[in-house]
Amino acid sequence: MSIELLLAAALVSATPILYAALGQLLIEKAGVLNLSIEGAMLVGAVSGFVVTSVSGSMVVGLIGAVLAGGAFNAAFAFCVVTLRLNQVVTGLAFSILGGGLSAFIGQAFVGKALAAQMPDLHIPLLADLPFLGPVIFKQDPLVLLAFVLVGVMALFLSRTRPGLLLRTLGESPQTLDALGIPVIGLRYLYSILGGGLIALGGAYLSVVDTPTWVENMTAGRGWIALAVVIFASWRPGWVMVGSVLFGLVDAYRFRAQASGQAFIDPHFLNMLPYVATLVVLIAMSRPGLKARLRPPAALGLPYDRERR
Questions:
Q1: 196: which of 70, 170, 233, 305 fits an S-S bond (Cβ 3.0–4.6 Å)?
Q2: How far is CA 126 from CA 2, 129, 135, 151, in A?
Q3: Banded model confidence at residue 113, pLDDT cuts 50, 70, 90
Q4: Any alpha helices (H) in the chain, and if so which ranges?
Q5: CA–CA separation, 111 vs 217, rounded Å?
Q6: What does the pLDDT read at residue 8?
């Protein structure tokens, strides 16, 4: 089994998880606990596939997926930010809603394939580098964009005024409200932006990675992305590391089965990404580690300015 090809496949497998985890990071930094991530990924996957099929353009399809994900999360934000419903229950309900909605919209497209394919980038000189060339610089544009976004988000959170406001929004929304900054509006904004990124992760699966539509094709990747954000302690760099680790497990199981070199039962290999998710969540629930995680202080708490 070639290490270069395995790592290249790992980056591809990590990409939908990375987009979803970065979107989740934005939403949770704003203080909104979003458990609808799996449903938003499915809405993005079916929207991207349907719009691409109808328009014949992958770019239009991906934009359609982002807009659909933003609208889906805007509805979620209305429930938990404006109506101040329980965020855990509402998130689970929207996750189920997204699954049912995607199955309904995509029922006429099940099993169909897209004619258009996303071309791989071939960056001159860089693509010819030993090892790094085939692993990084011969990927499709959305893979590279996902990893560029990690750096952009890290700089945004740590070096810009809007990033500081976002961090404050998740830690102490009362402070922003006292300064005359609209807490509700900002939570809507980041819920919609995060929903767009989550949906883009779903659309990557149906439009680029495996250009076809199958019900529930995200196969729990939304929950993996949620675990990655917790594992990363809400830091973009560690979100990337966690996504790549899960991508590596996912890529290995496929390549090991395809090459016949799987020394472990294939059914166990299929379980590995989800077993790893459970291990991360259990490990992070330990009191010592939980104290070091330091999630946003206002995460999951509805804001009511009359009570501040």
A1: 70
A2: 20, 5, 11, 20
A3: confident
A4: 3-29, 37-55, 58-77, 87-105, 132-136, 141-159, 161-171, 173-178, 183-203, 221-231, 236-259, 266-284, 287-293
A5: 11
A6: 86
Residue 57: phi and psi, rounded to 5, are -120, 125
Q: Which residue has the tokens 């938003």?
A: 40
User: What's the angle, vertex CA 49, arms to CA 191 and CA 269, rounded to 5?
Assistant: 85
- List the beta bridge partners of residue 110: 213
The 10s digit of each residue's pLDDT in 146-170 is 999 999 999 999 999 999 999 999 9
DSSP state for residue 129 in the 8-state scheme: S
Angle formed at CA 102 by CA 100 and CA 106, multiple of 5 degrees:
125
Question: What distance in Å separates the CA atoms of residue 117 and residue 256, rounded to the nearest whole number?
Answer: 26
Query: What pTM does this model have?
Result: 0.92
Alpha-carbon distance of 92 to 83, in angstroms, equals 16
| Nearest alpha-carbon partner for 23 in 200, 271, 262 | 200
Please report the pLDDT score of residue 260 as a whole number.
Answer: 61
Exposure b/e, 117-138, CB count within 10 A at least 16 = b: ebeeeeeeeebeeeeebbbbbb
Hey, what are 1's tokens?
């089994």
Reduce the DSSP state of residue 211 to 3 states and report it: coil
Instruction: Select the highest-mean-pLDDT range: 133-147, 177-191, 222-236.
Output: 177-191
CATH number for the region 3-307 comes to 1.10.3470
CA distance 19 to 276: 19
Q: What is the pLDDT of residues 220-261, one digit of tens each?
A: 899 989 989 988 889 999 999 989 988 888 887 777 666 666
What are the boundaries of each domain within the chain? Answer: 3-307
